[in-house]
Structure formats: structure tokens, C-alpha cells
Design goal:
eight-stranded mixed beta sheet; two-stranded antiparallel ribbon; 235 residues; 7 helices; 10 strands; alpha/beta
């Protein structure tokens, strides 16, 4: 069990009643890394681990702002993980919060749609995410589909990953972890760091594994929360 003496890590994401993804998975993961997880819920969803999302009820912007205001009284937030943001008002609330609050590193897992079921947001929100949220992000963890949808970066196979060196300038964050599970062939995740002159990104590390056929519901939530938890602990 975590305690109030442990580092605080904030997750801003949707609720998943199945417990496999979203806020529930985030808090469970943070606890395993011995950080105190606090949360602001961006949406209620109806979903199962296998059946996908059938309904989404976004949190109104003012209510999201009140949640974040309440959390600031809990102590210094040592890291932030952001998941689903459903609307422009939500993006604006979170961007304003990050601009006004001194937090540790911010990790964004840009969930645009679940593996199955109803989309979390429309393309009309994309420009707000890029223009208002990204300036506050230290690390973004998109899969290859999300990368293409948000920034127009088209990568079809792991052999084309080297193209990202210059294409990632559209992202603009200090660090980018590109998840390669949607690519053809052997899955390769790649970690990129922005060069000092802003001209592109340097490949820092490749993570190559055999493809898992297991249920991967919530894998992106768990990964980004684990990274945020470790950052909160000083990694």
C-alpha cells in the first residue's frame, strides 16, 4: 500500500469499469512502483476487457478543472501521466493547469481510440492537442497509428523507422517513445531524443521483442503510468 509520504504521481485519464485500462490500470501500476497515485477523470466509459468501448460520457471542463484544483492541495506532484482527453475544453483545462502548476515531468499517452469500439475523440480536437497540450509535454508515447493520425507521419514497417529522425520534428517534445506493435514484422519500439538544435531526433534505443498474442487491453496505459511512476521516484 502507498502512503502520503511517497511521491505523488497524477493521472489524468478516463475510467474503465473492467479495470484493464484507464484510471484503474494507471493507479494499480503506480502503486506497484510505490508512488501515491492521484487522479482526475476525463470520462466515464462502458467497456469490457474484450468487448471494446460501447459508450463514453466526457467530464465537463469545469468539473475536470475542479478535480485538478482539489489535487493541488495534496502536495507537490512529482510526475503526470495524461491519457484520454475528449474535448477542446478538456485540453484547455489541462494545459492551463500544467502552465500554472509546478509539477515534475509530464508523460502523454495520446489515446485516440480504443482497440475496439467507439472513438474517444474526433479530429477536430487534434489541433488543440498539438497546439495547447504539447508545449507542456516532456515525453509522448504514441503507437504508430496515433503518430500518423496526430502528425501525419506515415510509417508502414520497422524497416522504415529511420524516416522518423526528421519527421518527428512535427512532434516537438524532448522525448518520443514510438510503440511499434502495429507495424508489420517483428515489433520494435524506439526511443528518440530531440537534438539540441531542433533539427530532428536522434535514436536513443530500440526495444525489440517477439509479438505477444495475449490480450493487450490497457497496455499503453500501463506502460506510460510505469514510466511516470519511475520519473516521480527520480529516474
Amino acid at each position: 500500500m502507498t502512503s502520503k509520504s511517497e511521491p505523488i504521481c497524477l493521472t489524468i485519464a478516463a475510467s474503465d469499469p473492467s479495470g484493464g485500462a484507464g484510471i484503474q490500470a494507471d493507479l494499480r501500476t503506480m502503486e506497484k512502483f510505490s508512488v501515491r497515485g492521484v487522479s482526475a477523470i476525463t470520462a466515464l466509459t462502458a467497456q469490457t476487457a474484450k468487448g471494446g468501448v460501447t459508450h463514453i460520457q466526457p467530464t465537463p471542463g469545469p468539473m475536470l478543472a475542479e478535480q485538478l484544483k482539489a489535487i493541488t492541495g495534496e502536495g507537490r506532484i512529482m510526475a503526470v501521466k495524461i491519457g484520454v482527453l475528449c474535448s477542446k475544453p478538456q485540453v484547455e483545462v489541462v494545459a492551463k493547469f500544467l502552465a500554472a502548476t509546478k509539477t515534475g515531468p509530464v508523460v502523454w499517452d495520446p489515446v485516440l481510440a480504443p482497440t475496439k469500439g467507439e472513438k474517444f475523440l474526433t479530429k477536430s480536437v487534434h489541433s488543440a492537442l498539438r497546439g495547447k497540450l504539447l508545449p507542456h509535454i516532456d515525453l509522448i508515447t504514441p503507437n504508430i497509428v496515433e503518430l500518423g493520425s496526430l502528425f501525419g507521419i506515415d510509417i508502414k514497417s520497422s524497416r522504415e523507422l529511420e524516416k522518423l529522425a526528421t519527421s518527428l520534428t512535427k512532434v516537438g517534445t524532448a522525448w518520443v517513445l514510438v510503440k511499434g506493435g502495429h507495424l508489420r514484422g517483428t515489433p520494435v519500439d524506439t526511443l528518440w531524443q530531440q537534438m539540441d538544435d531542433g533539427s530532428g531526433y536522434a535514436l536513443v534505443k530500440r526495444y525489440q521483442h517477439r509479438r505477444s498474442r495475449a490480450n493487450v487491453h490497457g497496455s499503453g496505459c500501463i506502460l506510460s503510468s510505469a514510466i511516470a511512476a519511475q520519473l516521480a521516484r527520480g529516474a
